[in-house]
Amino acid sequence: MGRYNNNDHSQHENDNRSDQMNPNNDTYWSDRGHDDRPEDWEDRSDDD
Fold it and tell me: DSSP letters of 1-48?
């Protein structure tokens, strides 16, 4: 798979990817099997 190129994707796709890669976002955690962002998300985000 090639490098992620923002120019090849819609704004919605770009926003979704940003949410998935941001441990401050609930989507990041739900994609990793959590119901929501844990209280200790700052400590745990380095582990995932």
Answer: -----GGGS-HHHHHHHHHHH-TTSHHHHHTTT-SS--TTHHHHTTT-
